[in-house]
Amino acid sequence: MCKCKKLFFILTLCRDVIKNYFPDCFNQFTTCDMLFRNVAGCHELKGNLLQIASENCVPHAMIFTGRPGTGKLGMALAFARYLNCEAPGADDACNECRSCRKYAKLEHPDLHLVFPVAKLKNGEKDPVSDTYISRWREAVLENHYLSLYMWMEKLGVENSQGFISIRESQQIMKKLSLKSFEARYKVMIIWMAEKMNPAASGKLLKILEEPPAGTLFMMVAEDTGRILPTILSRTQIFRVPPIDKGSMQRLIGEKGINDPDKAGRLAKLSEGSYLKLQELLEEGDENSYNFSMFVKFMRLCFIPDFAGIMQWTEEMGARGRERQKHFLETALRLIRGNLIMNVKAGDIDLLPDEEKEWSVKFSKFIHPGNVHTLYDEFGKASLHIEHNGYSRLVLFDLAIKTARLLKT
Ligand SMILES: [Zn+2]
Questions:
Q1: How far is the CA of 86 from the centre of ligand 1 (A)?
Q2: Ligand 1 centre from 89 Cα, in Å?
Q3: Which residue from 27, 132, 309, 364 could staple onto 399, CB 3.0 to 4.6 Å apart?
Q4: Could you read off the pLDDT of 190-208 as tens digits, one per residue?
Q5: How far, in Å, from the CA of 70 to the mean position of ligand 1?
Q6: Span from the CA of 350 to the centroid of ligand 1 (angstroms)
Q7: How many angstroms does the Cα of residue 241 sit away from the middle of ligand 1?
Q8: What is the pLDDT of residues 255-277, one digit of tens each?
Q9: Topology of the domain covering 31-241
Q10: Would you say 118 and 152 are in contact if contact means Cβ atoms under 8 Å apart?
Q11: What is the Cα–Cα distance from 315 to 346, expressed in whole angstroms?
């Protein structure tokens, strides 16, 4: 057996072992997110869609609508994939047939994707979805809960609103006039359909009145109030609900958070939105970093260790201004919490456990004699950083003042 064949044999064996003994791992590595089972929650809606498919009464125009982070786009793509799957199961696409494999990469020739675009510096004058199709596929495969802001950020134009132009609707007409290549249904997904300008909406309306045979329109929208009523009246609306608490807790578990109290708190705060959960988890990392930097800052100031302070200001100074301001906000909150603990004037349970444990020893250094000046100095530092002061210098100056104030 030649070397290549041996390697292929070993790889196939590994694949089969993982598939048989660790099916969850196998699915994680071999599927993309666009299957029903990978869209969190929405059990009732999935049931309705499966029933529509089994009864063969799929409407030719649909809108999947719901709040940001609820899985609207994932649901539309999972349904399109299911409808075109060559061997669909009772509750999901097979994920192995030729159609599924192409859908997994969002590269099926009968799957057309339309989304808001923006003009880029030195970019195409009148861009359409096809101009940025590879970047959009990449963004959606990475996270199908993608928001419009995240997409614009990916294009490098986060201040833009994005648009679906008249030229785009001409392209839609052109694509739909072609015969389908291989699929049962030719699918046109229009993500953030409320971004269609009136002229583009008018063109789309004409196609919706006389849809080409075997064509399905799946629009995805957050705000149906901004879609022409004449379009809405020709489509079936599917409301995608917020992710239920149980599904949200499972998602949190998958992120490696096993503390049931913390998971419960996060599930409540995320209000059924995957994007909100992501934000909360990112903030959590930032808060924990800021807390450790505050502890280090106070220790260096207390000694005082000026060489250490220099190093500290270098590290904090290398972060962006918004992050430095966020650190100073955390510092102000911790100063307030430590004063409350010292004078026993309020509810110290408001501090998270890790911070409370540290504050038991530190709080005696924050008292009515220095708290006003400390508060002022941290507040002023934040203002100077906001007004483009040289942050390393501002933070070093703050450290010297803090060192003095901790001894008063
Ligand atoms: Zn399939």
A1: 5
A2: 9
A3: 309
A4: 999 999 888 888 888 888 8
A5: 24
A6: 51
A7: 26
A8: 888 778 778 877 877 888 998 88
A9: Rossmann fold (3.40.50)
A10: yes
A11: 34
User: 3-class SS at 407?
Assistant: coil
Q: What is the pLDDT of residue 348?
A: 58
Range 63-76 average pLDDT = 93
Residue 25 clears pLDDT 60, i.e. is over it:
no
Distance from residue 328's CA to the centre of ligand 1 (Å): 53
Rounded distance between C-alpha atoms, residue 182 and residue 178, angstroms: 12
Asked if 402 and 298 touch (Cβ cutoff 8 Å), the reply is yes
**CA 40, CA 242: separation in Å to the nearest integer?**
9
Task: Look up residue 206 and give its two tokens.
Answer: 């004409």
Centroid of ligand 1 to alpha carbon of 329 (angstroms): 51
Q: How far is the CA of 84 from the centre of ligand 1 (A)?
A: 7
283-406 is classed CATH 3.40.470: no
325-354 pLDDT, tens per residue? 889 988 998 999 899 989 887 665 556 777
Q: 81 CA distance to ligand 1 centroid (A)?
A: 7
Domain boundaries, the chain: 1-30, 31-241, 244-272, 283-406
Calculate how far, in angstroms, residue 160's C-alpha sits from the geometric centre of ligand 1.
Answer: 38
Q: What is the pLDDT of residue 15?
A: 46
Residue 379 pLDDT level (bands cut at 50, 70, 90)? very high
**pLDDT tens for residues 273-317?**
998 888 778 777 778 888 999 999 999 999 999 999 999 999 999
List CB contacts of 36: < 8 A, sequence separation 6 or more.
46, 49, 50, 75, 78, 79, 82, 91, 92, 93
Ligand 1 geometric centre to CA of 99 (Å):
6
The alpha carbon of 90 and the centre of ligand 1 are apart by a number of angstroms equal to: 12
